[in-house]
Amino acid sequence: MRTFFYLVIGVFFGILLFKSEAASWFRIYEMFQFDAFHMYGIIGSALGIGIVALQIIKRFNIKSFYGETISITPKEKGFTRYLIGGILFGLGWALAGACPGPMFTLLGAGFLPIAMVLISAILGTYVYGVLKDKLPH
Amino acid sequence: MVFQPWPWYVSGPLIALVMIILIMMGKRFGMSSNLATICTICGAGKRTNFFKLDWKSQKWNLIVVVGVVIGGYIGANFLSADATVAISQNTVLDLNSLGFESAGRAYLPSELFGTNVFSDIKNMVLLIIGGFLVGFGARYAGGCTSGHAISGLSNLQLPSLIAVIGFFIGGLLMVHVLFPFIF
After folding, report:
1. pTM of full prediction above 0.80
2. What is the pLDDT of residue B142?
3. Which residues of B touch A119 (CB under 8 A)?
4. What value, to the nearest 5°, has the Cα angle with vertex B17 and ends B12 and B23?
5. What's the number of domains chain B is made of?
């Protein structure tokens, strides 16, 4: 049953990424040109609601749907990895016009060349795993 | 209404809803970790400790991602009367001058995502480099747009703020400094 819920959430998120145009290369380019409010509105409103919701969950110790305690692991402290990793991610995001979620959406939408982007993203992930201990974090 | 592009004030809150539901199910919202799980499934854990994990604990997220693929199919084929993205006139003019004729007339630039790209080595290499940077950078930074910009910032995490600032430094650098050389 839970498996089915995950699938439904995924389908909904996939539709949402396509219909919000967050999966459009053009919208990402436009965002980095500061030519429209669209992407900022999406991320900003998601964030505003997200901050309030997480504060409520934490303050009132709200349990999960299954009665378990919700623990949201804080991100590891650090600076270098977040800045350098972030910059590399941003370079790729603007060039390919897709972050990981939209890559899967576009694959489903039938844009075959996105498969190359997705496979090289998996390869990039692998190369990071191999080089991890040699990189500054 | 559903068949039109969804405005930001509908889309943004719905993205928050997806994150909240996943958290209420005892999970978290992050797409790029699936890329690492796929490496593990392909056997990367045999050679590299980073990928040595029980991928079955991440199965739920892979199921989400299978849903995302299906959702993309449904969104494109059944829920869109016209998938043209109405980007601003400024952006259209910018992109036209870079050689993107499809700006303002398609969902994705046909120059990069049309099937003719398979015979265009330069643009294929660009897609591969772009994808590689996204995968490498996401894991280096420990998350992508969903994990840092939405979940991490929602949880008021300083590392996520640094990562998101990095996303923008990289994106602005690419679009404003490198694009004129590339295209």
Report:
1. yes
2. 96
3. 131
4. 130
5. 2
